[in-house]
Amino acid sequence: MSPMMFSLFLTFTLSLLGFVLNRTHLLSALLCLEGMLLTLFLALSLWAKQLDIILYLSLPMLMLTFSACEAATGLSLMIATARTHNTDHLKNLNLLQC
């Protein structure tokens, strides 16, 4: 395994571990998701460059677009829950009572 692939794998694993274990605030969960998506973007970009096929060069831009949409949706949901519940702690949010 090359050092670049190892660092990308380690970054993705640390972001996933942070998402699973550190679930106190909604903002920290969104930041961990954003780190995972950026790692996948970098891996997909390196993979497309390594293959040198024109068809695969648009995939990283498509993933980056979806990542931006996910970030905007997550932040808008965080603002909406912070306004209605006065907190962004995930323990206090009950999705069944919305």
From TrEMBL:
Keywords attached to this entry: Electron transport, Membrane, Mitochondrion, Mitochondrion inner membrane, NAD, Respiratory chain, Translocase, Transmembrane, Transmembrane helix, Transport, Ubiquinone
Single GO cellular component term: mitochondrial inner membrane
Topology in the lipid bilayer: Multi-pass membrane protein
Principal location class: mitochondrion
UniProt enzyme class: translocase
Subcellular location: Mitochondrion inner membrane; Mitochondrion membrane
Similarity section: Belongs to the complex I subunit 4L family.
Name under which the protein is recorded: NADH-ubiquinone oxidoreductase chain 4L
Source species of the chain: Plethodon shenandoah
